[in-house]
Amino acid sequence: MDLIERHQWRARDPKGVVYLQAPPRGVKIHYMGARVDPGIVDDHNRCVEVVKSVQRQHMDVNLWGDIGYTGCACPHRKVFVGRGPGHLPAANGAGLNAKHYAILALLGDEGLVVPPPGLLHGLVDAIEWLRGEGAGREVKGHRDGYATDCPGDQLYAWVRQGARRPDDGGGAVAVPPWHRVLSYPPLMEGDDVRTWQARMRARGWRITVDGVFGPQSREICRQFQIEKRDLHVNPSMVGRVDRPTWEAAWTSPIT
Ligand SMILES: [Zn+2]
Ligand SMILES: [Zn+2]
C-alpha cells in the first residue's frame, strides 16, 4: 500500500486532537460532493492540492481541529493519512463519528464522477490499513448515517456490492508464491506463515502476526474456509493452508 504520511503532503498541524475510546465498527466512504477536475487523473500533484484544500476548508471554514477524514484515497492508488487511526473523525455527522473511520475518495459530483480502478484499489487499501489498525469489518457510505448524496451513486453502489477491488480474480492483486501446506500441530514457522498471517490481518481477522502457525492460525484458517464455501475445501485440509486457501486470501472478495 502506498501511504502518504502527513509530512509528505505537508499537512498543517491539527489544532486539537480527540482520541477514540474504542475501535470503530468499520469505515464510511465519502466523496468530494463538488466538481473534481478529471485532469487530476493525469497529475498526482493536483491530488495533493485537493487534499490540502480540503484540510484548509475544514480548519478555516468549518473551524474543525483538522481535516475531517481519517484518510483520503486518490486515483493513483495512494492513501493520504488524514487524522489517522485512533483519532475521532469529523466527517460522518454528529454522534456518528466514533462508530466508523471516514475515508474520502477524490471523486466528484461533476467532472470526475466515475471511480477509476486506481481509486477503488486505494479505497480498499485504506480499508485494509484501518482494519489492520483495529477497525471492524463494516464498510458503509456516508448516506447510511443520514440523508446526504455522499458518497455519490456510483461509489455507493460499489460499497453496497461489497467494496471489492476492480477486476476481481483478474490478477489485480499479486498473490505471493505458495510453498507448502501450513498446518498445526506441530508448530510451523517461517516467512510464508508471517506473509499469510499479515494478509489475514489485513482482511480484518484478529490474528497475531508472529510467523508461527499455531492453534490461533489454524482456527482462523478454518473460519476463513467456512466463510469461503466456494473453496470446496477437501476435508483433510480444514484448518490447513493449502494452495487454494492461500490464493483465496489474496483474490477472494473481502466480506
Ligand atoms: Zn461524506
Ligand atoms: Zn493522486
From TrEMBL:
Q: Where is the Peptidoglycan binding-like domain?
A: 190-248
Q: Which GO terms describe its molecular function?
A: N-acetylmuramoyl-L-alanine amidase activity
Q: Tell me, what's a Pfam family for it?
A: PG_binding_1
> Which Gene3D superfamilies does the record match to this protein?
Peptidoglycan recognition protein-like, PGBD-like superfamily/PGBD
Biological process annotations from GO: peptidoglycan catabolic process
Xref: SUPFAM superfamilies = N-acetylmuramoyl-L-alanine amidase-like, PGBD-like
- What name goes with this protein? N-acetylmuramoyl-L-alanine amidase
What species is given as this protein's source? Microbispora cellulosiformans
